[in-house]
Amino acid sequence: MTNLKIEVQTTIPFDGQKPGTSGLRKPVKQFQESNYTHNFIQSILSGGLDNPAGTTIVVGGDGRYFGKEATEIIIKICAGNKVRKLIVGQNGILSTPAVSSLIRKFHADGGIVLTASHNPGGPDADFGIKFNTSNGGPAPDAVTTAIYKYSTEIKEFRIVPDLNCDIGKIGLEEFQVEGEAFTVEVVDCVENYVNHMKEIFNFDSLRSLIKGDGGSPFSFLIDGMSGVTGPYIRRIFVDELGAPEEFIVRALPLEDFGGHHPDPNLTYAADLVKSLEEGRYSFGAAFDGDGDRNMILGKKGFFVNPSDSLAVIAANLDCIPYFQRTGIKGFARSMPTGAAVDRVASKLGKELFEVPTGWKYFGNLMDAGRLSLCGEESFGTGSDHIREKDGIWAVLAWLSILAHRKESVESILKAHWEEYGRNYFTRYDYENCESSPCNEMIEHLRALQSDSSFVGSEHAQNGAVYKVKMIDDFSYTDPIDGSVATKQGIRILFEDGSRIVVRLSGTGSTGATVRLYIESYCGDKRKLQNTPKEMLKPLVEIALKISKLAEFTGRNEPTVIT
Ligand code: G6P
Ligand code: ZN
């Protein structure tokens, strides 16, 4: 076996290699700049791990443009840093939940996920690199800060330029790097994940649901949005659960997601919504580029808001074998997520945690055994089976509930609102705004905290009056390790429990995206069938006035409404 040599190459830092809500996301062209990707990978290994030598790392991504090149760079730099073993998805492909599952299953020291999630892909779009720690979850703030710090001081990276590995072929490849063994294990991207799902759910009962009884098959449509979930949904829904091939669409991963924005929401998955509206299917779901997000629809396109989806799953967890075994520990949601799950937690007598936006904040609670199920308004739902949100898991959870309750999605939701009341929720996104006016808008809102006339002020709109009870910039102290995250979004709470939240997205690659979240609780049974639009209209207007959003951003209409 050739004894490969490590080269130490000099480099200089790049500005802005600061991971956002979920990893470093930038235009592909930026990652293609000479040494840009090399620097960041070296920073992950040196800043994110105590010592990369001797470690095992999982590598894979959503198959977007530049993924293969990045995987090759990672393999060479890991070899240069004396990493002992890499577990790589075939052709560099692994969904984000699959990476998390593999890290945990093989007790790896971490994982490198190549994705910009729901951001578009292709040579003129985005790429991203995210580091996950040994618990399988996104690196916490302290680790991403250390990675960033390293990137600002980097002087050299270590690489084995002559190491060539065929990531298209499943199996083990052994190399010798300066006298020591370096192993690359290329794995089938789906195998381990499917086995994991079989341990969690009752596949027999799902198979019978899909088969239907007495000649009325359960028909559904699953949209992979040309992201990484394609091979997973084919294997699980068609091969394992027996659904006809035509129940899955856009199930071939494409480097540019077919030119679409691979984000499962009412705007970017409008085709799926339209197909469901035609009435043939009883259930619909879509996933984002890397397979951690999900959108759930019922017959005729009945939309399940992610905050409600979380609450319904929470209230029905006991029909899933995994939770029958582990018991229900506690629930959590991100701060802007609608509080429907809070009501389920209180009814079941379970703990409820409210964390900042970002899945990384759930990890410690899960590791400490205090959290079973959590979710975010941004179409993320998941449990402590891994440390990432998991789109396919959420669909299997919903199908388990449908199999158990033998009711439609819509009637399950309606029964839930009857029992708990309804948390009306909407989110307005203003994408690709200029950064500085958005920052000024946030500063303007922050300043209201010290305006003594703001708390107690009354805001009237369309005959409704809302009185401000409290305003703050959300901060969170992790109950497990005491770490503190500040400035996580402006919250304005009103006397009747309604609230407005404003924050800037942490997942864009350029410019700024403003997110405005509005929520109001309704316990009046006569109003439960109203639309969020009619129920929340006055509060939306009030939010726009208080934030002076149009004035600061120049936008009169949002890009996406959820
Ligand atoms: C990613 C993270 C989520 C988070 C979302 C928020 O998907 O994995 O945990 O909720 O980003 O994104 P934003 O653009 O609102 O910062
Ligand atoms: Zn994602």
UniProtKB/TrEMBL annotation:
InterPro entries: A-D-PHexomutase_a/b/a-I, A-D-PHexomutase_a/b/a-I/II/III, A-D-PHexomutase_a/b/a-II, A-D-PHexomutase_a/b/a-III, A-D-PHexomutase_C_sf, A-D-PHexomutase_CS, Alpha-D-phosphohexomutase_SF, PGM. Its main location: cytoplasm. This is phosphoglucomutase (alpha-D-glucose-1,6-bisphosphate-dependent). It comes from the Eukaryota. It is found in: Cytoplasm. Residues 17-156, 192-301, 309-420 form the Alpha-D-phosphohexomutase alpha/beta/alpha domain. It holds the Pfam family PGM_PMM_III.
